[in-house]
Specification:
The complex is a heterodimer of chains A (about 110) and B (about 110). Chain A is mainly beta and about 110 residues long. In chain A, about 0% of the residues lie in helices and about 50% in strands. Chain B has about 110 residues and is mostly beta strands. Chain B is about 0% helix and about 55% strand. Chain B contains no helices and 11 strands. In chain B, the strands form 2 sheets. In chain B, strands 2, 4, 5, 6, 9, 10 and 11 form a 7-stranded mixed beta sheet that branches. In chain B, a hairpin with a 5-residue loop joins strand 7 and strand 8. The N and C termini of chain B lie far apart (about 35 Å). Classes of the chains: A mainly beta (about 110), B mainly beta (about 110). At the A-B interface, strand 4 and strand 10 of A face strand 4, strand 5, strand 9 and strand 10 of B.
């Protein structure tokens, strides 16, 4: 099973950079690392995906070390609207993502 | 382009009954996946359909089943409902099957079993 481990919760002040780490010790060669964001009463929303090294888009950066056993989602200058649950499922095989319970990020004014 | 839609949004059933949930993917998307979300277990994969064929199935009992129609719309059915089936059921679509495709999730159907 492609299990991932994340901190249950994190708090951050508005305007700070937030780094959320995900552990995936049994990642397989063909697994990609994907991060999703979920607000209450909504389905998850794709943030970023990577295979190795660093990926950056308009909302976040994803850092993946050479051994790929962990990954770090970096959110620059968070705002109150970034308060959500963040997941780091591995995409193995077809479109079946193995989610966990995620990290609940609370941004404090 | 309209997003993924799920109907109904809320449903209340009693133990032993069965239920059918519906999902309409984004136009042009051919892959539909279903997930169950509960506070204790988080998001768990149920199954994936592509071109009317089930491609993958998660670790759920046979009471959970699904199908996909030629227009890519999908339904999932849960028979002999149990209290533990109370959850948010999410549907996600993507253009193709296969790994590493961004999935677009619907708002979910909240099922309560009494």
């Amino acid at each position: 099973l492609a299990k991932t481990t994340q901190p249950i919760s994190m708090d951050s002040y508005e305007g700070q950079e937030v780094n959320i780490t995900c552990s995936h010790n049994n990642i397989a060669t063909n697994d990609y690392i994907t991060w999703y964001q979920q607000f209450p009463s909504q389905g998850p929303r794709f943030i970023i995906q990577g295979y190795k090294t660093k990926v950056t888009n308009e909302v976040a950066s994803l850092f993946i070390p050479a051994d790929r056993k962990s990954s770090t989602l970096s959110l620059p200058r968070v705002s109150l609207s970034d308060t959500a649950v963040y997941y780091c499922p591995l995409s193995r095989g077809a479109n079946n993502l193995f989610f966990g319970t995620g990290t609940r990020l609370t941004v404090i004014p | 382009k309209a997003g993924v839609t799920q109907t109904p949004r809320y449903l209340i059933k009693t133990r032993g009954q069965q239920v059918t949930l519906s999902c309409s993917p984004i136009s042009g998307h051919r892959s539909v996946s279903w997930y169950q979300q509960t506070p204790g277990q988080g998001l768990q994969f149920l199954f994936e359909y592509f071109s009317e064929t089930q491609r993958n199935k998660g670790n759920f009992p046979g009471r959970f089943s699904g199908r996909q129609f030629s227009n890519s719309r999908s339904e999932m059915n849960v028979s002999t409902l149990e209290l533990g089936d109370s959850a948010l059921y999410l549907c996600a679509s993507s253009p193709q099957a296969g790994a590493n495709n961004e999935q677009f999730f619907g708002p979910g159907t909240r099922l309560t079993v009494l």
